[in-house]
C-alpha cells in the first residue's frame, strides 16, 4: 500500500532515491553530494514515519547516480540509508550504504597538530571503533572523533 507521501510526490524518471536516512540528516547528505545545485531537481522529505526507524528522511535526486565514494561518505551520516537507482521510472539497482572499517581521505583530523594537518603529504586515515553512535580513531595521532565532530570534518565542507 502506498503512503500518502508517496502519492503526493511525482516519481522520478532517472536518478537516485536515498531512503532510510536517519531523521533530520537529509541536509547533510545533500551537502556531501554538493547539492542543491541549479541543474539538479531534488525532492526532500524529512521526519517521515518509518516502521523500521520511527522516523526517517528521504532524498530523491533527478538525473544523477552516485559514485561509490559518495555512498561511503553518506554512510558516515546515515548508516542505514538505502540507495535505489532509477532508470526510466524503474528501480534498476538497490543497495545499502556500507560503513567501512577504515575511513580514508574523506575526513580531516580534528587535531590541529596531527601530521595530516601539516604540509606533509599524508592522507587521513581513521579506524571505525564504533558504528552507532559513530566513533573513529585517527591512525596517526589517535585522536578520537565522535559523530558530532565527524560532521564538521568533512573535506567537502
Ligand atoms: Zn590525527
From TrEMBL:
* Annotated binding of Zn(2+), by residue: 109, 114, 138, 141
Which residue range or ranges hold the Aspartate carbamoyltransferase regulatory subunit N-terminal domain? 7-97
Q: What are the TM regions of this chain, as residue ranges?
A: none
Q: Which GO terms describe its biological process?
A: 'de novo' pyrimidine nucleobase biosynthetic process; pyrimidine nucleotide biosynthetic process
Provide the alphabetized UniProt keywords: Metal-binding, Pyrimidine biosynthesis, Transferase, Zinc
InterPro entries cross-referenced by the UniProt entry: Asp_carbamoyltransf_reg_N, Asp_carbamoylTrfase_reg, Asp_carbamoyltrfase_reg_C, Asp_carbatrfase_reg_C_sf, Asp_carbatrfase_reg_N_sf
MF terms from GO for this chain are: metal ion binding; transferase activity
Cofactor: how and how many bound? Binds 1 zinc ion per subunit.
**Residues in Aspartate carbamoyltransferase regulatory subunit C-terminal domain copies:** 102-150
Q: Does the keyword Transmembrane apply?
A: no
Q: Per its UniProt entry, which superkingdom is the organism in?
A: Archaea
State the GO CC annotations: aspartate carbamoyltransferase complex
Cofactor (UniProt): Zn(2+)
Quaternary structure, per UniProt, is: Contains catalytic and regulatory chains.
Q: Which HAMAP family match?
A: Asp_carb_tr_reg
The protein's role, per its UniProt record: Involved in allosteric regulation of aspartate carbamoyltransferase.
> What family does the Swiss-Prot or TrEMBL record give for this protein?
Belongs to the PyrI family.
Q: Which NCBIfam families match?
A: ATCase_reg
Q: What is this protein called?
A: Aspartate carbamoyltransferase regulatory chain
Q: Which organism is it from?
A: Methanobacterium subterraneum
